[in-house]
Amino acid sequence: MTVTQTGGTSFEIPAEGLTTERSAVLLEVYRRNGSWKVRNRSAGWSGGLDALVTEHGVSVDESPAHTPTPTQASEPAQAPAPAQTPAPAQSASASATVDGHGVRTVPGEATLSLVKREKLNLQKREVAKVLLTKGASNPIGRVVLVMDNTGSMSKRYRSGEVKRIIERMVPVATQLDSDGNLEAYAYAQRFVKLPDVTVADADNWVNTYVHLHGRHGDIDFDAIGGTNNEIPIMEEIIGTLDKTAAVPTLVLFFTDGGFHAKAQITTLMLTLVLVAMAVTFVALPFFGKLSDSYGRKPVFLAGVVAMLLFTFPWFWLVNSGSFLLAMVGFVAFCLAFSTSYGPLAAFFAEAFDTRIRYTGISFGYTIGTLASSAPAPIVATYLLDRTGSYVAVALFMVAMCAISVVCVIAMRETYRQDLSDTDEAAGQERLSPTST
Fold first, then answer.
1. Helices 390-410 + 296-318 axis angle, to 10
2. What integer is the mean pLDDT of 242-256?
3. What phi, psi does 39 have (nearest 5°)?
4. Can you tell me the distance from the alpha carbon of 162 to that of 150, in angstroms, rounded to the nearest whole number?
5. What distance in Å separates the CA atoms of residue 202 and residue 415, rounded to the nearest whole number?
6. pLDDT tens, position by position, 18-34
7. Count of beta carbons in the 10 Å neighbourhood of residue 157
8. Rounded CA separation 226/21 (Å)
9. In this predicted model, what pLDDT tens digit does every residue of 145-167 receive, in sequence order?
């Protein structure tokens, strides 16, 4: 489309992204600050003219109104017929439309004011851009909202933070949920099913149901308790999943991370760590002594290989949800670690000639720590954040173990060798840990 201004200046506005749409708005002409402005929209609707006018707040009847047959003047006037019950609205999944930019519109939006529709459209476009960036073009699923209604959330409720978060989730629901609504729950010790959050009634819903205490909208929030118990609500949501359907479910779980069973969890974690450290305390001198009998290199190498092979099993055991299996995993990994760490001091000390031993150990151990050990937590956190899975972290650990294996193989065996600092030893140039 070409727009020509007064004076002959013209410019073209291309219709972008439109394919099979049956109706479209190519541009908008509006007046602002005393001047006329033009904005390219290129928005299309596959539902035709009905979908277009519905988007702009016009109600469209499902069928043409019936025109009554005129009565004769001589006939008495009949009483007006009772108002008919409106036909049930079509399901949102059947009535929803998608424009050329992948922005989905659900019927409830037609009841919003122009200002609210414009704000919602901007938010939906941002959601659509993220979905397209992630390779999810027009996905349809089920969106569930779960609110933490425990005492630790009181500041977030008072400040309005929870309300603002839920309002930002409405565009997500319109883009992802099959009917454009958010299924809602509130939980503490127990949980309660709340009415769905709809586009048309989102503001009223937030003001009615986003509360920690009291009775609001026939929901007694005090009855669900004030401390955390996530298991019942998780079991409820899992129980509502249709495992035979291909429709995915997105659960928006809003919590501050506070939990009631903190003391019990702390006790379990301390027990886990103390047992693992006790095993390490005994194993370190044992494997150090073992290297006196069988050599530094084979014992050290066995420990590194054991850690390499046990990395993935360790993650499986820790993520099993069983305290006993997690304990087995930690103890086994600490044994593998002790196998290499036990002979470490002697192995490194004997790798250098006595004239440079202190310097060699200091530089080697410190530089190795700075290059690998120090950034390891940062790298692991980054990999977990980027991939959302422990697999990338495990592969990182395997790679570090593989490098260690190569380095240990390249080092010489110092077991039962004379390390006295004599002229003969100096003449043999025993200065490098890899020289023979």
1. 180
2. 79
3. -130, 130
4. 13
5. 75
6. 666 677 777 777 776 66
7. 17
8. 51
9. 999 988 888 888 988 898 988 88
Q: Is the pLDDT score of 80 beyond 60?
A: no
**Beta carbons of 290 and 299 less than 8 angstroms apart:** yes
Q: 64 is written with which tokens?
A: 């043409």
Two tokens, residue 378: 């940062």
Mean pLDDT of 389-409: 91
Question: What would the mean pLDDT of 201-206 be, rounded to a whole number?
Answer: 89
**pLDDT for 92 beyond 80:** no
Each residue's pLDDT tens digit, 368-391:
888 888 899 999 999 988 887 889
The rounded distance, in Å, linking the Cα atoms of 107 and 212 is 31
pLDDT at 83 over 60: no
**Greatest alpha-carbon span in the chain:** 138
| CA dist., res. 202 & res. 182, Å (int) | 10
**What is the token pair recorded at 373?**
């050990």
